[in-house]
Specification:
Layout: H1 4-15, E1 22-23, H2 25-33, H3 42-52, E2 60-61, H4 62-69
Antiparallel strand pairs: 1-2
Helix pairs in contact: 1-4
């Protein structure tokens, strides 16, 4: 069985288009566009980045991503 962390790491790697270990706003938007318009709105993307970027560097590292999505906190109630 796959753990929530494993699933979050797999998603992170899918979104990390350049493989540098960091997600930029552009990479998140690109992943969202791949959903064919069924993904998050621009304001939801910005809110996700703000809530995940705990060190304030403008990018989301693996640990920041796992901390936010690895426990299901990103899902709407």
């Amino acid at each position: 069985m796959t753990s929530a962390r494993d699933a979050a790491e797999a998603e992170f790697k899918r979104f990390d288009a350049d493989g540098d270990g960091l997600l930029t706003a552009a990479e998140i938007r690109q992943a969202n566009e791949a959903l064919g318009g069924l993904g998050a709105s621009e304001s939801e993307i910005e809110a996700f980045i703000t809530s995940a970027d705990s060190d304030g560097d403008g990018t989301i590292g693996l640990e920041e991503f796992v901390a936010l999505v690895g426990h299901g906190r990103h899902e709407k109630a």
